[in-house]
């Protein structure tokens, strides 16, 4: 795994960079000296780092960002950054950068595998949900062929049934798409509604009602496909955790950390001694689980400056709390 070390002053100007940068990025050291670090990376990453960088001395922070090489190819890097001070009180910043492209590619393979697994598991519920409107459409077409004189009423119902199928299939197709890394202002309520549309068929098969209560219409800067994947993973886990009919409540509200979204199930709950293990690769409480769903969820939220909290409810079930920063 290759990497290099960079030192820059309080104005962001590079005053030292190790020769190993030539091997990783293709630039000569002389080309980079004097340049400003934020001019060498995407502006969105630079803005994020500036907004989250702690300038306290000896505080170490890690930022995973894409750095374009001399051929404009993006290299995934992990950057350990800290502040240092010389004997004259001047502040400098030092970064140890290493290439994690192989690690990221392996993660993306796991994500694709998990997404396809989710799609397969949802197939039974989706098939059941689509079969009902198809049966209705077939019946109305037979009535129209028989000459029944209620075309307008039947047409309206048939269009509604087709729209139901469109919503379900479009959300199912979304799961199999590769993840992007494109952040825009997105409406939280709309994302939650899309996910509920997709997972309601699976919930109905187990006589579980999904209730949305006081969902914030707050806009958050995020990658829509990734944050929807977060809600899919958590809501799907909540449905699978409940062996008996019941209710899953979803609510969100503003908080000093940003906007919080709670998904509260009525399952058996999670023992305190294993809550901290959830999210580790291949650790799972489900008989046929992989443990990758929550790991992927945590990684996505970290990329967005958010976090996941898992709480044991006092009476029954668990609460999965998604925290997203508000721009």
* CATH class call of the largest domain: Alpha Beta
- Assign the CATH topology of the largest domain: Heat Shock Protein 90
Tally of contiguous helical segments? 9
The helical percent reads 40-55%
H-E order: EEHHHEEEHHEHEEHEEHHEE
Query: Uncertain spans, ≥5 residues at pLDDT below 50?
Result: 279-283
CATH homologous superfamily grouping of the largest domain: Histidine kinase-like ATPase, C-terminal domain
The whole-angstrom Rg is 25 Å
Strand content: 25-35%
- In CATH, the architecture of the largest domain is 2-Layer Sandwich
Task: Describe the sheet with the most strands.
Answer: 5 strands, antiparallel
Mean pLDDT equals 80
Strand order of the largest sheet: 2-1-5-4-3
N- and C-termini, Cα separation: 35 Å
Please tell me the total number of domains: 2
Number of strands: 12
Describe the global form. Answer: elongated
Pairing-aware structural class of the strands and helices? Answer: alpha+beta
List the helices and strands and how they pair.
Elements: E1 3-9, E2 14-17, H1 21-25, H2 29-32, H3 43-52, E3 61-68, E4 74-85, E5 91-99, H4 101-145, H5 151-176, E6 184-187, H6 188-205, E7 208-213, E8 219-222, H7 224-241, E9 246-255, E10 258-264, H8 272-275, H9 292-303, E11 307-312, E12 318-324
Parallel strand pairs: 7-9
Antiparallel strand pairs: 1-2, 1-5, 3-4, 4-5, 6-8, 9-10, 10-12, 11-12
Helix pairs in contact: 4-5, 4-6, 5-6, 6-7, 7-9
Explained architecture:
- The strands form three sheets. Strands 2-1-5-4-3 form a five-stranded antiparallel β-sheet. Strands 7-9-10-12-11 form a five-stranded mixed β-sheet, covered by helices on one side.
- Helix 4 packs across helix 6 (188-205).
- The two termini are 35 Å apart.
- With 327 residues, it is α+β, with helices and mostly antiparallel strands.
- It folds into two domains: 3-99, Beta-Lactamase, CATH 3.30.450.20; 104-324, Heat Shock Protein 90 (2-Layer Sandwich).
- It has helices at 21-25, 29-32, 43-52, 101-145, 151-176, 188-205, 224-241, 272-275, 292-303; strands at residues 3-9, 14-17, 61-68, 74-85, 91-99, 184-187, 208-213, 219-222, 246-255, 258-264, 307-312, 318-324.
- It contains nine helices and twelve strands.
């Amino acid at each position: 795994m290759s990497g290099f070390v960079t030192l820059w002053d309080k104005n962001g100007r590079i005053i030292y960079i190790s020769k190993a940068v030539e091997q990783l990025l293709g630039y000569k050291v002389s080309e980079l000296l004097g340049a400003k670090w934020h001019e060498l990376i995407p502006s969105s990453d630079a803005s994020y780092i500036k907004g989250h960088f702690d300038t306290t001395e000896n505080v170490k922070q890690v930022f995973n960002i894409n750095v374009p090489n001399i051929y404009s190819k993006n290299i995934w890097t992990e950057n350990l950054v800290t502040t240092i001070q010389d004997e004259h009180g001047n502040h400098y910043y030092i970064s140890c950068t290493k290439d994690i492209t192989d690690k990221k590619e392996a993660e993306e393979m796991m994500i694709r595998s998990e997404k396809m697994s989710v799609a397969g598991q949802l197939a039974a519920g989706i098939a059941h949900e689509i079969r009902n409107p198809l049966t209705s459409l077939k019946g109305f077409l037979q009535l129209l062929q028989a000459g029944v004189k209620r075309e307008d009423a039947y047409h309206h119902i048939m269009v509604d049934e087709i729209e139901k199928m469109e919503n379900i299939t479009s959300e199912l197709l979304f799961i199999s798409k590769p993840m992007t890394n494109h952040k825009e202002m997105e409406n939280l309520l709309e994302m939650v509604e899309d996910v509920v549309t997709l997972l309601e068929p699976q919930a109905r098969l187990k006589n579980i009602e999904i209730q949305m209560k006081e969902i914030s219409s707050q806009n958050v800067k995020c990658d829509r496909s990734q944050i929807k994947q977060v809600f899919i993973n958590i809501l799907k886990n909540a449905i699978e955790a409940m062996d008996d009919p019941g209710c899953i409540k979803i609510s969100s509200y503003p908080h000093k950390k940003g906007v919080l979204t709670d998904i509260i199930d009525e399952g058996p709950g999670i023992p305190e001694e294993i809550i901290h293990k959830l999210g580790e690769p291949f650790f799972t409480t489900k008989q046929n689980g992989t443990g990758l769903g929550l790991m992927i969820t945590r990684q996505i939220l970290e990329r967005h400056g958010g976090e996941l909290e898992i709480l044991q409810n006092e009476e029954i079930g668990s609460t999965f709390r998604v925290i997203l920063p508000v721009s």
